[in-house]
């Protein structure tokens, strides 16, 4: 089934659609708020948006220049999101993905196509507030056209049980002069198991910036594997990873940056804070195939800095409060 | 000297060992409420070690002696417990915090934080609130900016005892005057300030002064007198003795040197 909804507000939708739809819609928006989203975005016809609950497309709002086609599958959805060349989108496209049940699979297969010279931001919230045994799989394909800019910010909320497996994979192509910024946040509630894989090919004078922030506790397992290939002259790439783990959680970061063209510049920056019996690993890989390219990396892994801790304690905070502020700051 | 007042801080015969060194050797010091007490001494004389010990920092647990604050023995208390009793410390090289905004950082130590008080604290260190409130307390700040923010945070906290470790280092000449004014302002509002410095001109802002040498206090008294003593007897030895003025000189041990009168 293909869904092409006309712009319409959720309030009016609630009065028109069947009660089961309304219940789903209200539940997922409530969870969306818990994940940090603002429901008001779905009430504006100036903001492109989509609401996906499990494999149901509950709501889509398109605006001029932004096209969202969504197709339901047995376990999720396929989506094709196109931004016309030259379009400047004033407000981020709001996307809400989630599942209310405790168990199940949600498989999101999106294709993003950002036309030449377009500029667009996306604000995605993925929320699974009751998850006990649930898989959220994403396999995204992204093309950022010549001179275009795409900023994608994704925030997750997994509830308190840690019963979620988040398995997002992205293949991104940034064409000449394009810019791709991606930020993934999983800093509230439990993580469960998270395995992010992202590959970005960057053309001439293109830019890719990838940020991952996550806070693991209990027996959470965080794994981030990111590869940036700087294939065009003067392409630039940055990976920035901020992970905190405590209890018995594990944080693993594998970043690779390839400098394959003259003037390519890449940097990998990883900070991981470890407490209790948690374990953190960082494996940066630098590959340079051109003598005029340069790739660097820095990593800091360990406990909270004693000096930072004592500075905050000297303001009257307890040690636990101070640690929490330092970690929250790093993940902010 | 403050005969009618009970002392706020009393340090008695304090010894602290660090790996490979005895950094405090029988320190005795008294600070009264709302006084500015300057602690002079060359680099390496033990001033910062005393500051960390008074704050209760890790690795600075006294091997001997005790610290009394308002009559209570706080020698075994944690940093947080000391801060909750009204002691705080501004580090010589303040820590930086990724993602923590200046306004929030200053408000952390305030019992009843308000935006007006945070802004007032920033203005007190000559930083424009509109520019600095939202800036992160991270490596994007210069050393001078970070030190001013640290002072603002201490001022906003309104502690009973503020230990300021070299607040004047890394600050331009005009800034040093502003810091001296702020220190007097803190004392006027009831905060005792233990001002640690190796710049003897900072003694102008003080009510009393002590001189530290070789890990101990060798003289306490009127700031002019202590300053003159420091300038005449310690400064000339700074180049030749560097950061270790208590090391044996002409065969004398540090104790003999100190006992005879600093670095004569």
Description:
The complex is a heterodimer of chains A (332) and B (264). Chain A is mainly beta and 332 residues long. Helices cover 13% and strands 53% of the residues of chain A. In chain A, strands 1-4-5-7-9-11-13-15-17-19 form a ten-stranded mixed sheet, with no helix packed on it. A ten-stranded mixed sheet of chain A has the order 3-2-6-8-10-12-14-16-18-20, with helices on one face. In chain A, helix 3 crosses helix 4. Chain A is globular, with a radius of gyration of 20 Å. Chain B has 264 residues and is α/β, with parallel strands linked by helices. Chain B is built from nine helices and ten strands. A six-stranded mixed sheet of chain B has the order 6-7-8-3-9-10, sandwiched between helices. In chain B, helix 7 links the parallel strand 7 and strand 8. In chain B, helix 4 packs across helix 6. Chain B is globular. The mean pLDDT of chain B is 87.
Provide a compact summary of the structure.
The complex is a heterodimer of chains A (332) and B (264). Chain A has 332 residues and is mostly beta strands.
Number of helices of chain B: 9
- Rg measurement of chain A, Å: 20 Å
User: What is the C-alpha radius of gyration of chain B, as a whole number of Å?
Assistant: 18 Å
Strand fraction of chain A equals over 45%
How helical, in percent, are the residues of chain B? 25-40%
Structural class of the secondary structure composition of chain A?
A: mainly beta
Question: Main sheet of chain B: which strands, in order across?
Answer: 6-7-8-3-9-10
Assembly state of the chains shown: heterodimer
């Amino acid at each position: 089934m293909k869904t092409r909804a006309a712009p319409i507000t959720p309030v009016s939708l609630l009065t028109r659609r069947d009660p089961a739809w309304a219940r789903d819609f209200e539940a997922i928006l409530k969870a969306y708020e818990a994940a940090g989203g603002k429901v008001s975005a779905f009430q504006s016809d100036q903001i492109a948006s989509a609401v996906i609950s499990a494999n149901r497309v509950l709501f889509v709002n398109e605006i001029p220049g932004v096209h969202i086609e969504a197709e339901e599958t047995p376990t999720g959805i396929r989506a094709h999101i196109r931004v016309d060349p030259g379009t400047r989108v004033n407000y981020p496209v709001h996307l809400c993905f989630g599942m209310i049940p405790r168990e199940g699979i949600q498989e999101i297969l999106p294709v993003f196509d950002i036309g030449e010279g377009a500029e667009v931001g996306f604000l995605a919230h993925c929320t699974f507030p009751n998850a006990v045994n649930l898989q959220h799989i994403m396999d995204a394909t992204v093309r950022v056209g010549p001179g275009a800019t795409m900023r994608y910010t994704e925030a997750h909320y997994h509830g308190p049980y840690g019963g979620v497996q988040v398995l997002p994979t992205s293949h991104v192509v940034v064409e000449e002069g394009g810019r791709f910024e991606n930020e993934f946040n999983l800093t509230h509630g439990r993580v469960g198991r998270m395995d992010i894989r992202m590959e970005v090919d960057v053309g001439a004078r293109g830019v890719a910036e990838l940020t991952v922030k996550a806070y693991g506790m209990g027996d959470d397992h965080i794994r981030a594997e990111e590869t940036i290939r700087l294939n065009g002259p003067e392409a630039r790439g940055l990976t920035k990873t901020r992970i905190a783990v405590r209890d018995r959680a594990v944080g693993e970061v594998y970043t690779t940056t390839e400098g394959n063209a003259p003037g390519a510049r890449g940097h990998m920056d990883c900070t991981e804070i470890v407490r209790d019996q948690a374990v953190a690993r960082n494996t940066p890989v630098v590959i340079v195939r051109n003598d005029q390219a340069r790739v660097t990396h820095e990593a800091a892994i360990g406990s909270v800095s004693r000096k930072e801790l004592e500075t905050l304690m000297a303001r009257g905070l307890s040690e636990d409060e101070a640690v929490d502020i330092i970690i929250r700051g790093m993940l902010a | 000297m403050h005969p009618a007042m009970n002392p706020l801080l009393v340090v008695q015969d304090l010894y602290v060992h660090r790996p490979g060194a005895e950094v405090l050797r029988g320190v005795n010091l008294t600070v009264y409420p709302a006084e500015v007490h300057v602690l002079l001494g060359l680099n390496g004389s033990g001033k910062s070690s005393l500051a960390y010990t008074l704050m209760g920092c890790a690795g600075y647990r006294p091997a001997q002696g005790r610290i009394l604050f308002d009559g209570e023995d706080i020698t075994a208390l944690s940093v947080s417990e000391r801060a909750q009793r009204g002691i705080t410390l501004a580090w010589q090289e303040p820590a930086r915090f990724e993602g923590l905004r200046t306004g929030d950082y200053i408000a952390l130590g305030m019992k009843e934080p308000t935006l007006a008080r945070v802004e007032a604290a920033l203005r007190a260190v000559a930083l424009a609130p509109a520019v600095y409130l939202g800036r992160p307390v991270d490596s994007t700040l210069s050393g001078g900016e970070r030190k001013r923010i640290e002072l603002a945070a201490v001022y906003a906290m309104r502690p009973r005892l503020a230990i300021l470790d070299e607040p004047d280092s890394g600050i331009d000449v005009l800034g040093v005057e502003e810091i001296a004014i702020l220190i007097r302002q803190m004392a006027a509002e009831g905060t005792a300030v233990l001002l640690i410095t190796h710049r003897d001109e900072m003694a102008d802002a003080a009510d009393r002064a002590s001189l530290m040498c070789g890990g101990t206090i060798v003289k306490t008294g009127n700031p002019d007198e202590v300053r003159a003593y420091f300038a005449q007897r310690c400064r000339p030895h700074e180049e030749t003795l560097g950061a270790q003025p208590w090391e044996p000189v002409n065969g004398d041990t540090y104790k003999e040197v100190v006992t005879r009168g600093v670095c004569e």
